[in-house]
Amino acid sequence: xxxxxxQPSPTDAPLTEGDLSxxxxxxxxxxxxxxxxxxxxxxxxxxxxxxxxxxxxxxSARDVQRRMTxxxxxxxxxxxxxxxxxxxANPYIQRHLATxxxxxxxxxxxxxxxxYLLWADPHNLRRALSQVTIRDxxxxxxxxxxxxxxxxxxxxxxxxxxxxxxLRDEP
Length: 171
Known about the structure:
By secondary structure, the chain is mainly α. Helix content is about 55%, strand content about 5%.
């Protein structure tokens, strides 16, 4: 709800919980409710609906992705001058922010944050990184050398793997 409420409605008024309840009640037949990372998520029932809304939107696909990226990013708390608390981020953000950011042309800013690299979903971040060229970023270079070993590893294990590879390759 927090993400959707920050997105402008057609009247540019903020969405309320009542608006979302109305939407689910009146358009629920066009939505699929499922679970992801222990929370309820809603998706449009058919790709044709997605295609229709994309064709008729008042913003470009890139603008929509920028809005989504900015909104998701704003949901991650800051740690008093010590970077963002990716460990406390909503699981949807950890899993999907890279996908939205690459579509928005904003993946580079995220990859400058080593904490994000540890908490982001490795599969989705790797796929996003394969779609862009990020030059002169030693963190991304290190991440890409390690990511094949990340499945099943938590953020602390990922940090240890990256440190080991960095010490081995760049003493």
